[in-house]
């Protein structure tokens, strides 16, 4: 596809499923009105594609006017906090997806928004930040004219397939991280895992917010019951739906495992604290015996016969040592030490 330096980073037309770089208004992004007029009169299966990167409000208004898009759908495209969804209208289909990636250095999920609006004879892909993978995904249409021949819905398919593939990759990453934390949870040589578990659970919740709004759509896709999908693409969309359902199940499983691990980690911390308290209490009890004896004989009353007995000092030391030893054995046997 052709690339430009403005907000439209790629554009082109597919006629009869074949990428046609010249001889139509889609060879240039300068005249949106001409491209929109071509789309209105396009034969079934023919369409043009625009990839729009980080469009401003004025640029979105220009696209809105040229292609007669729905204002509310454009508002959803502009709102980066909008939840993932698919809206099927009378003239246009809006698919708003949350693309995910794993930052290896920060060990966290990064989210970006990809929106696709399709109508008769056109498909517009909106990005909130540049993505070279979108260009490669759309490049699949050039090598698969049978898919491109199904019309603008083919763009929706390749974009959804790309995003869901990222979901599958992230699922494997989180699975590995969960297994690693689970292995170290009961390893006394490893540091406390609570912070890592909490961080993973937060990342998984972000992932869940990207995936779960699409679950109802995934059921319809996997059952091939969504009539807005061209008949020639229902098998492909069903495959995407199946992958999306497996990802959703995995995300729910991670959520349950991480919550259980968090409770187990907290319980282990409480148990360790109880052990520490028991050890401190046992040593305090042992130290109390010689302290009490020393305090009593430290008063130096003349009527204390042991003070003038020649064996008084060693006898008191023996009593202290014996008492402490007996207490130490008792606490050791009970598991307090």
Oligomer: single chain
Question: Which CATH architecture of the largest domain is right?
Answer: 2-Layer Sandwich
The class by helix and strand makeup works out as alpha+beta
SSE topology string = EEHEHHEEEEHHHHHHH
Q: How large is the radius of gyration? A: 35 Å
Any idea of the CATH topology of the largest domain? Beta Polymerase, domain 2
- Helicity level: 55-70%
Give the integer mean of the pLDDT values: 83
Rounded to the nearest angstrom, the distance between the terminal CA atoms is 74 Å
Strand content: 15-25%
Task: List unreliable stretches of 5+ residues.
Answer: none
Tell me the major beta sheet.
Answer: 7 strands, mixed
CATH class of the largest domain: Alpha Beta
Number of strands: 7
The strands making up the biggest β-sheet line up spatially as 2-1-3-7-6-5-4
Total count of helical runs of at least 4 residues: 10
- Principal-axis shape equals rod-shaped
CATH superfamily membership of the largest domain: CorA soluble domain-like
Number of domains: 2
């Amino acid at each position: 596809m052709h690339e430009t330096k403005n907000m439209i980073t790629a554009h082109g037309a597919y006629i009869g499923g074949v990428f046609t770089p010249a001889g139509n208004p889609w060879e240039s992004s300068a005249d949106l009105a001409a491209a929109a007029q071509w789309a209105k009169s396009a034969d079934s299966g023919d369409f043009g594609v625009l990839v729009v990167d980080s469009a401003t409000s004025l640029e979105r208004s220009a696209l809105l006017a040229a292609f007669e898009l729905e204002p509310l759908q454009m508002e959803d495209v502009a709102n980066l906090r909008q939840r993932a969804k698919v809206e099927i209208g009378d003239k246009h289909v809006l698919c708003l997806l949350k693309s995910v990636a794993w930052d290896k250095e920060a060990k966290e999920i990064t989210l970006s928004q990809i929106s696709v609006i399709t109508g008769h004879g056109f498909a517009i892909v909106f990005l909130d930040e540049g993505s070279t993978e979108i260009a490669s995904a759309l490049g699949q249409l050039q090598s698969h004219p049978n898919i491109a021949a199904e019309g603008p819905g083919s763009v929706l398919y390749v974009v959804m397939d790309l995003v869901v593939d990222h979901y599958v990759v992230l699922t494997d990453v989180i699975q590995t991280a969960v297994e690693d934390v689970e292995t170290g949870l009961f390893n006394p040589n490893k540091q406390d895992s609570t912070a890592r578990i909490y961080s993973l659970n937060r990342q998984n919740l972000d992932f869940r917010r990207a995936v779960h709004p699409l679950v109802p759509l995934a059921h319809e896709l996997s059952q091939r019951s969504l009539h807005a999908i061209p008949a020639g693409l229902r098998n492909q969309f069903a495959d995407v739906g199946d992958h999306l359902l497996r990802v959703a199940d995995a995300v729910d499983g991670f959520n349950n495992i991480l919550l259980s691990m968090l409770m187990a980690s907290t319980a282990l911390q409480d148990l360790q604290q109880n052990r520490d308290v028991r050890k401190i209490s046992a040593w305090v009890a042992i130290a109390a015996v010689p302290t009490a004896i020393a305090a009593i004989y430290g008063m130096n009353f003349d009527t204390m016969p042991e003070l003038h007995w020649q064996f008084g000092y060693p006898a008191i030391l023996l009593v202290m040592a014996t008492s402490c030893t007996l207490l130490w054995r008792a606490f050791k046997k009970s598991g307090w030490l």
